[in-house]
Amino acid sequence: MKKLTPYILLIPQMIIGAVFLTGLGTGIVQSLGVIPAFGMTKFTTQYYREVLQDPNLIAAVKYSLFTSFLSAFIACAGGTLICALLVSRKKTAGPVMRIVQLPIIVPHLVVALFIVNIFSQNGILARIGAALGLLRDQSEFPLLIYDPHGFGVILAYVWKELPFVIYFVMALMANINGKLGEAAVNLGASRRTAFLRVTLPLCMKSILTAFLIIYVFSLGAYEMPFILGATKPKALPVLAYVAFQNPDLRTRPRAMAVNGIIIFLSLLAVLVYHLLIMGLRRKGERA
Questions:
Q1: What is the DSSP letter of 144?
Q2: What is the C-alpha separation between 62 and 67, in angstroms, rounded?
Q3: Does residue 60 form part of some domain?
Q4: Residue 84: CATH number of its domain
Q5: Distance from CA of residue 176 to its chain's centroid?
Q6: Which residue range or ranges hold the ABC transmembrane type-1 domain (predicted)?
Q7: Radius of gyration of the chain (CA)
Q8: What is the DSSP string of 37-62?
Q9: Within-domain flag for 85
Q10: Residues linked to residue 40 through DSSP beta bridges, in sequence order
């Protein structure tokens, strides 16, 4: 029985994995035009060709890549900086970390509504600015929500994911800084040099992993761009969602083709991540 225990414990994970892989496989098959329930039984790349020839798709790809990359970059850069400050001041536990963890448990939909209520031209900041005479009218408040550049989407993702980076990197950074970082300081290095040459490089794998998680998640999530984004351009997940809601169910493969492109871009990001990690590993071996 003891020999079977590990396999029994794996059953829930296997069930969840099977459901995920079934959905993924079904989506890929449908993107190739096969939906037997609708009498569509022949594989074709027609829907991918149609999607790739759509000018709205190019705009959606640029928009999604821009908002996802910038959100992940700002969250990782800011999170790493704050993490370094907390570690240097030995505030890696207690009330500070509880405050940091708060945004992590807030649903993305709630964050989107929070951003609208504060940063829109009818939001709290615009009203305060107009009431104090800083703005002649609320419409003079910078267009951060529903703008074509996705600044509202980026702002929401940074607010939500920056604490995730801190929480993700904190334990490792504190451990490295408390051992190898202090050893470097004892050998004559300044604390800044010890952080830049010892602690940060050894934390880079975790930072890149956090970047990948945020990037791929924001690339495939539709809530934020759906609520905070402009009508045009649409983000890729929103484009897929709109196509999926088409009452003509025979156009379903078009929506799945857009999802297929999202999967491709996500896998491309994973490949780049893998190459960067391999580069860091080779650099560490040479050092």
A1: -
A2: 9
A3: yes
A4: 1.10.3720.10
A5: 26
A6: 61-273
A7: 23
A8: GGTB-S--SHHHHHHHT-HHHHHHHH
A9: yes
A10: 35
pLDDT band at 1 (very low <50, low <70, confident <90, very high): low
Domains: count for the chain: 1
Question: Could you report the per-residue pLDDT of 149-203, keeping only the tens digit for each?
Answer: 888 899 999 999 999 998 888 888 888 777 777 777 777 777 788 777 888 888 8
Q: Is residue 72 part of a domain?
A: yes
Closest to 111 (Cα-Cα) out of 160, 167, 165, 164: 160
Query: Burial code of 153-172, b = ≥16 C-beta within 10 A, e = fewer?
Result: bbbbbbbbbbbbbbbbbbeb
Quick: pLDDT tens for 207-227.
999 999 999 999 988 888 988
Residue 4 scores a pLDDT above 80: no
Neighbours of 198 (CB within 10 A): 20
Asked if residue 30 is part of any domain, the answer here is: no
Range of the domain at 122: 45-282
Dist. CA 113–CA 151, nearest whole Å: 15
d(CA 210, CA 233): 27
